[in-house]
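Example 3.2
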Amino acid sequence: MAAISLDPRPSFQTGKSQNQHGAVIEEIEGIIKMYKDGHVERPPLVPAVSCAVSPELGVAAKDVVLEKFTNLWARLYAPSRPAEKLPLIVYFHGGGFCVGSASWICYHDFLSNMASKAGSIIVSVNYRLAPENRLPAAYEDGLNAITWVKQQAISGAHDQSWWSSRCNFSSMFLAGDSAGANIAHNVATRLGGLKPLCLKGTILIQPFIGGELRTESEKHAFQPVGSALTLPASDAYWRLALPLGANRDHNWCNPIGKGGSTKGGDFGAVLVCISDMDILKDRNLEFCSAMAREGKRVEKVIYRGVGHAFQVLNNSQISQTRKSEMMNDIKAFIHQ
């Protein structure tokens, strides 16, 4: 996969560009633009691809509608000839809650490889995006995806047997990167009545969290060229995703603040994957400490020399090396 260049710089033209939708009231240059009348534009950032998978991976994939009313769908991946039933990963893509898709080539490649190399069934959820659907819409979609998976486990529907017959439903993990990791965590806090599913753990890759008070890594982290997440872009994503009137100390953004989400919920084991050159590094470390103080079983891994979303947006040699390490860490975590 070629490196994908994102330029997440808030535009300094906000409020000045005019068209039939009125003034631009929020913009991350080249990524998303929101107008006064609520109209949203998203330039084509990343190619969307079909569910076809390279034969050498030995993985089958299909797109499945989970709920028609909200157009909730998922891309499912299943190794073709597993020697035994495999753990299930329900995965949420990143994109600041505002962009991204389960059909983006970067996620399709990453997750088809994960299914093959980590030995897992993967349900990659295509949830609703902000600002048209602000939080908690993505969390609700995550819960609806889990409900759909539970229904398949109970009914054993023939049309889903291509993956469900290979799935160990008693070994389920919620996972995601960036905003998707935030979704995985917040869905985990809301789960109840899962049987016959059993949540064994959560896998949080560079979880997108924040707060009003700046951390040292937010203020001073060295950013690789073309970094996928800058501090101004992070702030803009939160303005677009949080409920109107909320600030970055809202508990959906700041899980370790007052009323945060590290206390409740049965998360199982938690694997947190942190990038050394990510502005979120300090917040991710603080999150791990807060979870551990609440008695949660937390494993953290720091990947050196790489930035935010390196595993899906960068093709450098060091990124490929660290991605291979991440795959091995995830494999060990879900099969322990």
